[in-house]
Amino acid sequence: MKSYRKELWFSAPTRRAFINITDPVQACLEESGVREGLVLVNAMHITASVFINDNESGLHSDFEKWLEKLAPEKPYSQYAHNGYEDNADAHLKRTIMGREVVVAVSEGRLDFGPWEQIFYGEFDGKRRKRVLVKIIGE
Question: CA angle 86-13-93, nearest 5°?
């Protein structure tokens, strides 16, 4: 069985962003040489997420509005966590959107359903953060 590990780094210019990372993950898969197996993709920061969904801007806008209703950024004083930092909402948003995804690998490709793509969700951006790609298989 082969094993492959790579870190992808992202720096969102805004506090919140959704970045399609399907192509970089597929590039990791090709680099790994694995044809049949599994890919794990997970955010290595507690205020970021990795999830699978449709690459549609209206949906991303809906996510942003929905998450802001559930865990509004401001006022910062509403959160016990906020003191030195002002990112309690980002921790909550990450919990809702998830930490990682696992995707099957078939014939050297990410084995998705229709419209599925992998996204990095940033909820406390403007700094460099990493995503782990771990691939196992044959």
Answer: 45
Please tell me the total number of residues recorded for the chain in this structure: 138
Distance CA 103, CA 23 (A): 14
- Strands of the chain, DSSP E: 2-11, 17-20, 37-43, 48-54, 100-106, 109-110, 116-122, 128-137
Report yes or no: 43 and 125 within 8 Å, Cβ to Cβ: no
The CATH number of residue 57's host domain is 2.60.120.460
Contact criterion met (CB below 8 Å) for 128 and 11: yes
Number of domains in the chain: 1
Per-residue pLDDT tens digits for 45-80: 999 999 999 999 999 999 999 999 999 999 999 999
